[in-house]
Specification:
Elements lengths: L21 H4 L3 H14 L3 H12 L5 H18 L9 H9 L3 H17 L3 H11 L8 H16 L3 H18 L2 H16 L8 H12 L5 H14 L3 H5 L2 H37 L8 H54 L5 H15 L4 E8 L2 E8 L7 H17 L2 H15 L2 E8 L2 E8 L9 H40 L3 E6 L4 E4 L1 H7 L16 H7 L5 E8 L2 E11 L6 E9 H12 L15 H14 L5 E5 L5 H10 L8 E5 L5 H9 E2 L12 E2 L1 H5 L3 E5 L6 H13 L1 E3 L6 E3 L3 E6 L3 H7 L4 H7 L2 E5 L9 H16 L5 E2 L1 H9 L5 H14 L7 E2 L23 H16 L6 H15 L4 H8 L3 H10 L9
Parallel strand pairs: 10-17, 10-18, 11-14, 14-17, 19-20
Antiparallel strand pairs: 1-2, 1-4, 3-4, 5-6, 5-9, 7-8, 8-9, 12-13, 15-16
Helix pairs in contact: 2-3, 2-4, 3-4, 3-14, 4-6, 5-6, 6-7, 6-8, 7-8, 8-9, 9-10, 10-11, 10-12, 11-12, 12-14, 14-15, 15-16, 15-19, 16-19, 17-18, 23-24, 27-29, 30-32, 34-35, 35-36
Length: 940
């Protein structure tokens, strides 16, 4: 659809002149030139309109004439797709309307809307139309122009149904007034919208027929061009689609040349009129030069006529050549059918390829023809004609690659046009795609030896050849593939990792693969009956008689297998059998555990916080996600430790691997060990017969989250330390070491440093798990995060519950800021969910609480983000010394333990020095530490 404004069909009357020779002056001056320009635009005489506007520009213009000059110049620019001149000021248009020029002002606002729409400013266009609407009289041409432009602006805004109504309103204005071209313009645009599904039941072809009838003999060259294009695109008759691009292009050129001839004639007549009137009106000037000016004007007109007649003759010649090309193409098709009948007798791909290039070269009189097959890394030349030609790869490779890209990316309706454009660009060489179910390639032809050129008919002939050849090649390739199919199936059968077994109704093994032979451990099985092999008796009972089964566990002497079987019937016979797949039980269980594992839900985008501590924690976590080190996340309950753990997993290279979590505080000691490390079958009373895989193995190369690791018993800490250090795990009841590849993330709400001092947590384990330390501050210490968190939870809950609330009142936010939030972010989320659930669906904001906030102020220990320091250690020693000095009875074992630890601290962790200071041997010192569940690195 064109972006220009259609002709207005409004012939403004020139202003009446006064004074001497007023009748002659009425044919000169600004008003007369503007009238000529408007008439020229009505007839699509662009050159004449441009000449008249230049002449008017040289005159003295009043306000109304300036406005009309601009709108005519802007319409001409829109028709040509050029930039419009700067528009007049809005105040000038308002003043013009107040002085009685409402129609002209309305038209100017409408043209301004078209200019803005062409520049992509749809809102500005609609604003200009709002100014034009009250100035246009109901049912007038101006009102129709406003409606027509409103429809175009609504199309630009993708409001197609409203645009159709606007075009309908414009049509209702134009038809009673006899504005035929404007009515046709509205109908053409309605046809476009109907083709896009708007406008009800009437199809585009009906609107086009009405547009053609409305135009009649009033059609200009632009109207005929638009109608031809629309009928070729949306028409229903066969003649609408038979017209080729080349013929339509020539017809458009012919129409344009005729219009240029007419415009030139009118322009020259205008020049003659100007010269005559100027000579007769201004007697004070020497008019001797007038004959010369008249002669020059006539010569210009004759030059235009001669030039345009040459164009017309050229176009007529090209039309004749196209008609001759159609006849030649008919002969080519007859020849191609005869040669293809011979090619169909080819018995191999090589023979067919050789005949195909000979046919292609002969049909289009090419110097060289190639048949190529596409590969991942280039093309293979299957055949070329003549056999001695050596085409340059720098020429045919780009042509073939371009044609394959165009045919693959373009829709079927436009692929031909895209390839023809490519053909035009290549000139003496082109390629067409050749595809079948089992083949992708191209036919390439050129006339580089003689410097000839191909036309569209040659392209169409080679395309038809490629279509037939693609089908023939597909059949030959399918026949060749069939000869290798059984070998390929057999090879694939043997390569399958799972065991495959085909058994008939009597239990006779018809086929098997290497994996099944290995699992069943009975040597070659094909031709043997399962019932004759005692070791496979359970399998025989499962599969014979043939029946389907899913995931049956069969216990054989050498191990267990999971069997999935399907009963099959051979078509056309009464024979039945069963095809079974076998999987080792252990591998099937690992795979099942992998797929049922819950995937992490949170990423770094789910973390909300603007405070400095949170920003620092997120930055450290993002950095930790790029590393492969153990991480300790500390913070009070509800601060989001698991959210951070999942975000670190999803933000790193392990995101595609499992994320496995285990709450160390929620499981008893014995169950915790089996969950972490797994167990072999029969390891303890109540264990599953098939055993179980542990969390370390289940995590694979992903992430293992140990939640609340501070609550893990000391003996379990020792076992965990070995796994973390050695990176291997041994199942309960087993002896085999299994490698650990998962990254460890631990979380806790406890002070692990204090736990170490109390002997409740191993210092060496703390060092191992705290390679990176992320501390999450409680919500009461980062009040600036309360508002974004609260708004985030409000919108999240509202989205789930389908409510309109999306904000929180300032008063309620103040209440939140005053609260202590002992439950941290989790408590805030629960409060928001409760309050939003109690709101009406249409409530826009959360204004007040329906239930008071918890008054509980008991807090868990406040964490420090800083690592334990020497000063803190000595503070602990001082506190311990003060406690011993108090009148409290302490056991000798506790006194001994404190003495040993004080000596170790005083010697900076050096066991040898501490033992010497206490007067005991180093082995005695190590035994004491081992007794208390402590372990330090041996002195070097």
């Amino acid at each position: 659809m064109t972006s220009s404004l259609p002709p207005s069909n409004v012939a403004r009357q020139p202003r009446q002149a006064t004074g001497p020779a007023s009748e002659d002056r009425a044919l000169t001056g600004a008003a007369a030139e503007l009238r000529r320009a408007r008439q020229a635009l009505e007839a699509d005489q662009d050159e004449r309109a441009e000449s008249a506007l230049r002449a008017a520009d040289a005159c003295q213009l009043d306000d109304g004439e300036r406005v009309e000059h601009w709108l005519l110049a802007a319409r001409l620019a829109l028709l040509r797709g050029a930039a419009a001149p700067p528009p007049p000021h809005a105040d000038l248009l308002h003043e013009l309307a107040r002085r009685g020029g409402s129609a002209l002002a309305s038209e100017a606002w409408t043209v301004l809307a078209a200019v803005r729409r062409a520049a992509g400013d749809t809102e500005g266009a609609l604003a200009a139309l709002s100014e034009a609407t009250p100035l246009a009289s109901a049912g007038s041409v101006e009102a129709g122009l406003v409606a027509l432009e409103r429809g175009a602006s609504l199309v630009a805004a993708d409001e197609l149904d409203l645009a159709f109504l606007a075009y309908r309103q414009a049509l209702d204005c134009f038809e009673p007034l006899g504005a035929r071209r404007l009515a046709a313009a509205a109908l053409l645009r309605m046809a476009e919208l109907a083709a896009r599904g708007s406008g009800g039941e009437t199809g585009p072809a009906e609107w086009l027929a009405r547009a053609q009838s409305a135009l009649g003999d009033a059609a200009t060259w632009r109207d005929r061009r638009s109608l031809r294009a629309a009928f070729r695109k949306h028409g229903r008759r066969l003649p609408d689609h038979v017209l080729s691009d080349a013929i339509a292009q020539r017809l458009d050129q012919l129409d344009r040349s005729s219009a240029l001839l007419e415009s030139a004639a009118f322009s020259c007549a205008d020049d003659v009129t100007r010269v005559r009137l100027e000579a007769g009106v201004d007697a004070s000037q020497d008019s001797a030069a007038s004959p010369d000016r008249l002669a020059a004007a006539m010569r210009r007109m004759l030059d235009h006529v001669v030039s345009l007649n040459v164009d017309t003759r050229r176009i007529a010649t090209e039309m004749s050549e196209l008609a001759a090309a159609v006849a030649a193409e008919r002969n080519q098709l007859r020849e191609m059918l005869l040669t293809l009948a011979d090619a169909s007798q080819a018995s191999s791909v090589a023979e067919l390829s050789s005949k195909a290039v000979e046919i292609a070269r002969g049909l289009v009189a090419a110097d060289c023809a190639l048949l190529l097959q596409a590969r991942q890394d280039g093309f293979d030349v299957l055949a070329l004609s003549p056999a001695h030609c050596q085409p340059t790869p720098d020429v045919w490779k780009p042509a073939v690659a371009a044609c394959l890209r165009a045919s693959a990316s373009a829709p079927p309706s436009t692929a031909g046009a895209a390839l023809r454009r490519q053909m035009t660009l290549l000139g003496p060489a082109f390629a067409v795609p050749l595809r079948s179910q089992a083949f992708e390639g191209a036919i390439y032809v050129d006339k580089l030896g003689r410097g000839g050129q191909f036309d569209e008919a040659a392209y169409q002939v080679v395309s038809l050849l490629a279509t037939y050849l693609g089908q023939s090649l597909g059949m030959l390739l399918a026949r060749d593939a069939e000869q290798h199919a059984m070998a390929e199936v057999s090879a694939a059968f043997r390569a399958i990792r799972d065991g495959v077994l085909s058994v008939d109704a009597d239990g006779l093994v018809r086929a098997t693969n290497a994996a099944a032979v290995r699992m069943l451990n009975q040597g070659e099985l094909v031709g043997r009956k399962l019932g004759d092999l005692p070791a496979l008796a359970p399998l025989f009972e499962l599969l014979v008689p043939p029946r389907s089964t899913d995931g049956a566990v069969v216990r054989l002497k050498h191990g267990r297998v999971v069997v999935t079987a399907r009963r099959v019937e051979i078509p056309g016979t009464s024979r039945t059998g069963v095809v079974a797949t076998l999987v080792e039980h252990e591998r099937a269980r690992r795979a099942a555990m992998h797929f049922v594992n819950v995937r992490p839900r949170f990423t770094f985008d789910d973390i909300v916080g603007v405070s400095r501590p949170m920003r620092e924690a997120v930055a450290l976590a993002r950095h930790a996600a790029t590393l492969d080190a153990n991480i300790l996340i500390t913070g009070e309950s509800g601060t989001g430790k698991e959210v951070f753990a999942q975000a670190i997993h999803t933000g790193g290279e392990r995101a595609q691997h499992p994320f496995v979590g285990l709450n160390c505080a929620a499981l008893p000691r014995d169950l915790l060990e089996s969950e972490l490390f797994g167990y072999e079958h029969g390891s303890f009373t109540g264990a599953r017969q098939e055993g179980a895989i542990g969390k370390f193995e289940l995590a694979g190369e992903g992430t293992l989250l140990l939640d609340e690791i501070g609550d893990m018993p000391l003996d379990m800490q020792a076992k965990l330390l070995r796994v973390v250090q050695e990176r291997v795990v041994v199942r309960i009841g087993g002896a085999a070491e299994r490698p650990v590849r998962a990254r460890l993330i631990a979380t806790t709400h406890r002070h692990l440093e204090d736990a170490v001092e109390r002997g409740a947590f191993r210092l060496d384990l703390l060092f191992r798990i705290r390679v990176l330390h992320i501390h999450l501050p409680p919500l009461r210490e980062r009040l600036e995060d309360i508002e974004p968190l609260a708004v985030h939870f409000v919108r999240q809950v509202a989205s789930v519950q389908g409510k309109a609330v999306d904000r929180i009142s300032p008063a309620l936010l103040d209440t939140f800021l005053q609260h202590d939030w002992p439950g941290n972010v989790r408590e805030l989320a629960n409060v928001i969910e409760r309050e939003v659930s109690m709101l009406d669906a249409s409530a826009p904001a959360l204004e007040e609480l329906h239930a008071p906030l918890s008054s509980r102020s008991a807090r868990e220990p406040v964490f420090s983000a800083e690592p334990p320091s020497v000063a803190r250690f000595h503070q602990g020693r001082a506190a311990a010394a003060a406690a011993i000095a108090a009148p409290v009875i302490v056991s000798m074992a506790e006194v001994e333990r404190k003495v040993y630890l004080d000596a170790l601290a005083a010697c900076s962790g050096h066991v040898g020095k501490a033992a010497s200071a206490l007067g005991v041997s180093r082995s005695t010192f190590y035994d004491k530490l081992k007794k208390w569940g402590l372990r330090v690195e041996e002195d070097k």
